[in-house]
Design brief:
Keywords: NAD, Oxidoreductase. InterPro entries: Gfo/Idh/MocA-like_OxRdtase_N, Gfo/Idh/MocA_Oxidoreductases, GFO_IDH_MocA-like_dom, NAD(P)-bd_dom_sf. This protein is of the alpha/beta class. The chain has 2 domains: 133 residues, Rossmann fold, CATH 3.40.50.720; 175 residues, Dihydrodipicolinate Reductase, domain 2 (2-Layer Sandwich), CATH 3.30.360.10. Helix 3 links the parallel strand 4 and strand 5. Helix 4 runs antiparallel to helix 9.
Length: 328
């Protein structure tokens, strides 16, 4: 019997959730709610309900929360009280206290609470994680991410740190399987808004990996790149295209001295891997479904989502204080 799923919010992201909920096996989208109506016409045969209370009244097993961040806590707490498993879009909440209340509510109710950190489900990063786990890079030294592009007018309630940098914090900690230990960050406010539109985070994980996250809404070019450098070379994952490339440290000496001094580390083979590239949102929904059914799953838990928010908040604090902040 299919899980009865509801969707709160059918804006830019919610419309994609609606499509995927209708496509995956074992799930039936039975209700949609959005106080703003149905701007993208995704309701189909379903009535657009006015709020989370009306959504819950339909009778649900699971729900997706895809409304602005400041509304996450209220919706999630009502879903937990009603016994409904929830997938909440990232970031988990607008404040750490709100996130903690959400974690506690779902834990006490024995429900699956998940956060939509979708980059973990990107095929390039999933392949990268598998290869790191298999030891193909040896010891990991450094992770650098670049997430740059034009300003999205749809984002009004948070800055680039919570909206975009949270992706990179989560994926970095997941890729190296180690949480951030300390961060130093700098922000800029260039577009006349109350929230930052540029942030760089320099940090270190508990395992000793050096981290650098470069994020902004000020670039005319869109870039989504993760570079993991280690003992045997470097992996470059482009999450916009789903491509993964490996640059191996070489064992062949370069006899042409000027080229050798320019290129530094000796060159090895360059491999661009071929692998199945499934839509990340579909893989994320399947992981959430499997977690609800009690199967093994790589779902991003609310606890992990809260940890990511704590790192982002620490980075914002660091930028205000202009000093390094240790993650509590």
């Amino acid at each position: 019997m299919a899980l009865r799923a509801g969707l709160l919010g059918v804006g830019m992201m919610g419309r994609h959730h609606a499509r995927v909920l209708r496509e995956i096996d074992g799930v039936e989208l039975v209700a949609i709610a959005d106080p703003g109506g149905d701007p993208h016409g995704v309701g189909g045969e379903l009535e657009i309900l006015p709020d989370i209370d009306a959504l819950i009244e339909v009778g649900l097993d699971t729900a997706v929360v895809a409304v602005p961040t400041r509304f996450h806590e209220e919706a999630a707490l009502k879903l937990a009280a009603a016994g409904v498993h929830a997938l909440v879009e990232k970031p988990i909440a607008h404040t750490l206290d709100a996130g903690r209340r959400m974690v506690e509510a779902f834990s006490q109710a024995g429900l699956v609470g998940a956060v939509g950190h979708i980059e973990r489900f990107n095929p390039a990063l999933q392949e990268l994680r598998r290869r790191l786990e298999a030891g193909e890079l040896g010891a990991v030294y450094q992770v650098v991410t670049r997430r740059q592009g034009p300003f999205p007018s749809r984002i009004a309630d948070v800055g680039v740190a919570k909206d975009l940098a949270s992706h990179d914090v989560d994926l970095t900690a997941w890729v190296v399987q180690s949480d951030y230990e300390r961060v130093f960050a700098q922000t800029a406010f260039k577009s006349g808004r109350e929230h930052e539109d540029m942030i760089t985070i320099t940090g270190r994980t508990e395992s000793g990996v050096i981290v650098n996250n470069i994020v902004n809404w000020l670039s005319p070019m869109k870039e989504r790149v993760t570079v993991v450098t280690g003992e045997k070379g470097a992996f470059v994952a482009d999450t916009a295209t789903g491509d993964l490339t490996f640059f191996a440290n070489g064992t062949i000496p370069l006899e042409w001295e000027s080229v050798s001094s320019f290129r530094g580390v000796s060159e090895g083979d360059v491999i661009r891997y071929a692998f199945t590239k499934r839509e990340p949102l579909r893989v994320e929904h399947e992981a959430f479904r499997d977690a609800v059914l009690g199967d093994r799953s790589d779902v991003v838990t609310m606890e992990q989502g809260l940890r990511t928010l704590a790192v982002v908040e620490a980075a914002l604090e660091s930028s205000r204080l202009m000093e390094t902040v240790k993650i509590g």
